[in-house]
């Protein structure tokens, strides 16, 4: 397998398109069970945590990891972004915020609906956002 050039942002519905690849996923931690967590990112995603992972139930997490054949994610790196998150359906807005990516990466203004919209746009325009070898 050739070296992967990018780590695409995804949500649960896109998992099956990225088996064996590294991805970035954001969502709300809904359950912690030992070395596994369930994250809601437009659907439930099971993630296998590494020993450096420190997540809190109810907080939003950003996970970078590899998608397994069972559609779980083996975590390479994760970050707890805290509990302050909004869930809006920004996909229905005619004029989304001008700098959507900046809003996603600012913990004080997290919006998972906006994140899902950015993921959708990313996958509609793969030639711009996803580099494949």
UniProtKB/TrEMBL annotation:
SUPFAM superfamilies per record: Nucleic acid-binding proteins (SSF50249)
Protein's name according to its UniProt entry: Replication factor A protein-like protein
A biological-process GO annotation: mismatch repair
InterPro entries in alphabetical order: NA-bd_OB-fold (IPR012340), Rfa2 (IPR013970)
Main location as per UniProt: nucleus
Localisation: Nucleus
Residues that span the membrane, as ranges: none
Organism expressing this protein natively: Hapsidospora chrysogenum (strain ATCC 11550 / CBS 779.69 / DSM 880 / IAM 14645 / JCM 23072 / IMI 49137) (Acremonium chrysogenum)
